[in-house]
Here is the input.
Amino acid sequence: MTDAKLARRSLLGAAGLLAAAPLAAPALAKGLAEWKMVTSWPKNLPGPGVSAERLAASIGKLSDGRLTVKVYAAGELVPALEAFDAVAGGTAEMAHTAAIYWQGKMPAAPFYTTAPFGLTPLEHMIWVEQGGGQALWEKLYRPFGVQPYMGGNTGFSMAGWYRREIASLDDVKGLKIRIVGLGGEVFRRLGATPVSLPTGEVLPALQAGVVDAAEVLAPWSDAAFGYHKVTKLYYGPGFNKPNGTGEAIVSLKALEALPADLREIVAAACRLEHATALTLAEWNNAQSLEVLKGTHGVQVKAMPADVLAAASRIADDLMSEIAAKDALSKEVVDSYRAARARTGGWLRITQGVFLAARDG
Here is the structure.
């Protein structure tokens, strides 16, 4: 049995045990609490939007209906990029979003989604669960009264959709590209103009020429948005976003008002959703990429070597600059870099060599 299957079986077993917990507390009636979950995604967007709905349903099922969660898509209750403030301020008890959006509040927050030339999805999980990342994440968010969990993953990203070819570093200069997080700063230093837009606004901006390129997620979600109707040039790898961890954030006040077993159920549901979402994402990313190429004539292009080399140097400088901003940012960056060094050395001599040999 593979490690992935063992991990999933363990998660499902834990969830099953937690699902039985309410039977030991018959005095707690159904409908004990009802939460609002705001999201940063359009309704049922393949990947993160579906994750949010599935997570809410899991909490209701595992709690035997004692805790129910109503999901609000981006813009229904609050705008997409105000999900964190909604939870911190008490407008909603919960949100499904991404830490990549909160750099203005906490310089190190984007590391909990991804960082340019950073951790892959598996490495990120190892860092958060085994390398001290979760404790630092909680330390980062606690001043806002918010508890974070990994709550989904869109997998390894692509570098985006481009209206014109990128043959060298010179072609990046002057490029207007929709991109968020630390990758936006990398592109700015490469000479491009990063534009931050919520996911729901990207397609019309690309269609109208407001942006020359758009980096959003990976093939499964990108195909649903229809970017291939505007351009057939799809670049990879997503060096700016090699992971796609989504976060489920919960009001500490709301969480602490629950009995202990329901608090554990919320945590278990998030953990289960992260594992489920990642396997679904990578399965569907692979399939969607083949459909984009075979049915829609999309050309998958490799980012030029000089772009990748320059971006890698900038990314390393950027990490150091973030670490210098404050003591907690330094703790996060140092921990992240240590995890990357530890897991990267192992992966290079195992998966890296193995995949090259397997592919001939």
Notes: The first strand starts at residue 33 and ends at 39. DSSP finds twelve helices and eleven strands in the chain.
